[in-house]
């Protein structure tokens, strides 16, 4: 079986891509994110298969009762948003011990056994599975499994739309202006995320959120052709365990799967013109490679890169109003880190990167 790891480049549709692949008879995936790196650390010295299964269950209870997963709305599935899924833990445990006890005890066999056992507990024919899809989500989590043989699905989006959506979505979800740490985290992965993946020396398939919506059939055709999968109707729907999915809570709205009329929304009130100029200048190779349109800006002096971005000003003012000393310190710290990121960034070209 081939292993594919799904990583997000921000608010870039990793959940949507996962939901499109989920349910295919030849793809073995859990209906959500699984932080396998954390799990490995908890079970690395455990010999009992029953205890390993129990730890997996305790850390991922929502996989057995989706009502427990609020953020991804896995308890609001189906056409009427009133469905959920439940998987019998004892059934999973039975298949996990049956599958894993016959294998050599190592990372890849543990990962494989968990996925196959989950599929079996969901009454799928696990012997027909060709691919394991691990939704690891975060870039930094790849390091702990770098010794395994896998390829990467990496989702991207127009950089300005990505930065704008993350700031607004998470501020709305948290009901307050996001903190400088979270903002820099997303800015860094928007700018430097793909570079970090390239350095892993794994083959990378880049999926644009825009294409996932507007060129959905082409993306599905490519996935089936490249990975020798049967073209099944489920691939044209956004589902988890074959129940319609409506997107996560950060967007507030319920998203009705693939949208042929999808358009990126950039809130220009969140940017100074110099912000747009330098983001596009820093990512000029990236933007050209993946076919994003540049917004015209007047040329700026290099010294303007040291001026705070509008989002940095917004966060600083918010922390000042709330008399948040730690927030003010962090505002200054991550302002400096952003300058360093912009000055030192250089897009790494690699033949291992392929756009779907």
How would you describe this protein?
- The protein is α/β, with parallel strands linked by helices and 356 residues long.
- The chain folds into two domains: 2-251, Rossmann fold; 268-349, no CATH class.
- Helix content is 43%, strand content 10%.
- The chain has 13 helices and eight strands.
- The protein has helices at residues 14-21, 36-43, 49-59, 89-100, 107-121, 159-174, 180-198, 209-214, 216-226, 273-282, 284-289, 310-321, 325-344; strands at residues 2-8, 27-29, 131-137, 151-156, 204-208, 239-240, 243-244, 353-355.
- The strands form two sheets. It has a six-stranded parallel sheet, sandwiched between helices.
- A hairpin with a 2-residue loop joins strand 6 (239-240) and strand 7 (243-244).
- The longest helix has 20 residues, at 325-344.
- The chain is globular and about 65 Å long.
- It starts with a strand and ends with a strand.
- The mean pLDDT is 95.
């Amino acid at each position: 079986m081939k292993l594919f790891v799904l990583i997000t480049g921000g608010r870039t549709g990793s959940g949507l891509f996962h939901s499109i692949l989920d349910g295919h008879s030849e793809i073995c995936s859990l209906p959500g994110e699984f932080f396998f790196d954390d799990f490995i650390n908890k079970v690395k010295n455990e010999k009992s298969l029953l205890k390993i299964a129990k730890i997996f269950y305790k850390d991922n209870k929502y996989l057995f009762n989706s009502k427990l997963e609020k953020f991804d709305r896995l308890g609001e599935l189906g056409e009427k948003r009133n469905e959920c899924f439940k998987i019998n833990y004892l059934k999973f445990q039975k298949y996990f011990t049956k599958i894993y006890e016959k294998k050599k005890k190592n990372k890849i066999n543990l990962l494989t056994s968990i996925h196959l056992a989950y599929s079996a507990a969901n009454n799928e024919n696990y012997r027909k599975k060709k691919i394991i899809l691990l939704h690891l989500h975060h870039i930094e989590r790849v390091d702990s499994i770098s010794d395994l043989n896998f390829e990467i699905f990496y989702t991207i989006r127009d950089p300005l739309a990505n930065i704008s959506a993350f700031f607004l979505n998470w501020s709305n979800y948290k009901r307050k202006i996001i903190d400088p740490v979270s903002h820099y985290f997303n800015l860094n992965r928007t700018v430097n995320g793909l570079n970090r993946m390239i350095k892993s020396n794994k083959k990378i398939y880049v999926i644009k959120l825009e294409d996932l919506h507007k060129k959905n059939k082409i993306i599905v055709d490519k996935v089936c052709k490249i990975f020798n999968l049967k073209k099944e109707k489920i691939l044209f729907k956004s589902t988890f365990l074959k129940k319609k999915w409506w997107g996560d809570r950060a967007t507030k709205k319920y998203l009705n799967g693939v949208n042929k009329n999808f358009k990126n929304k950039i809130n220009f009130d969140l940017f100074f013109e110099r912000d747009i100029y330098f983001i596009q200048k820093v990512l000029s190779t990236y933007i050209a490679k993946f076919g994003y349109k540049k917004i015209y800006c007047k040329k700026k002096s290099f010294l303007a890169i040291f001026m705070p971005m509008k989002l940095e000003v917004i966060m600083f003012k918010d922390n000042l109003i709330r008399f948040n000393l730690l927030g003010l310190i962090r505002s200054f710290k991550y302002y400096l880190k952003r300058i360093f990121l912009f000055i030192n960034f250089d897009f790494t070209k690699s033949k291992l990167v392929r756009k779907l």
